[in-house]
Specification:
Layout (H helix, E strand, L loop, with lengths): L7 H6 L12 E8 L2 E8 L2 E6 L6 E7 L5 H11 L9 H8 L4 E6 L2 E8 L5 E8 L3 E9 L5
Antiparallel strand pairs: 1-2, 2-3, 3-4, 4-8, 5-6, 6-7, 7-8
Length: 147
């Protein structure tokens, strides 16, 4: 069974405003990420982005699992069809997605595990795991990303 169920088309229609009230959102313009320019919505370190070259299609989601209210977090994760929850440890995450394609460590107390998930409509999923708090942050985008 495929761990990820959302299609690229459905992912592209998602907006952060579907989950967080407009007064708590910041509109982003000229945001640089993954060597591309984006527009989108942010609430703290949670940001949902669309390429400037294709402004109607969401192509990147980043979620601060510690800052989001539990109900909002569960709603977002459910919409993305990810079998994850805040606080999972590395072993629990790799039990779901297998071994990561890459492991990144930018700060001593956390590691980011990068997975390629979805056989038909693939995504790159980044799971940042804190040594004490477990899963605290995730990023997700369809792959390959257009230029």
């Amino acid at each position: 069974m495929e761990p990820l169920g959302i299609s690229h088309d459905a992912f592209g229609r998602l907006r952060l405003a579907d989950f967080i009230r407009a007064e708590h959102l910041e509109q982003l313009r000229g945001w640089e990420y993954l060597e591309r320019c984006w527009i989108g919505e942010a609430s703290g370190f949670t940001e949902w982005l669309r390429l400037e070259s294709a402004p109607e299609v969401t192509r990147s989601v980043a979620m601060d699992l510690v800052a989001l209210p539990e109900a909002t977090l569960q709603s977002m994760i459910g919409a993305l069809r990810l079998p994850l929850r805040a606080g999972l440890d590395q072993q629990e995450i790799t039990a779901v997605f297998g071994e990561p394609t890459e492991t990144q460590r930018f700060v001593q107390d956390r590691v980011t595990l990068v997975f390629r998930i979805g056989a038909v409509e693939p995504y790159e999923l980044g799971c940042t795991v804190h040594e004490e708090q477990g899963l605290i942050y995730l990023t997700m985008h369809p792959t390959p990303l257009p230029d």
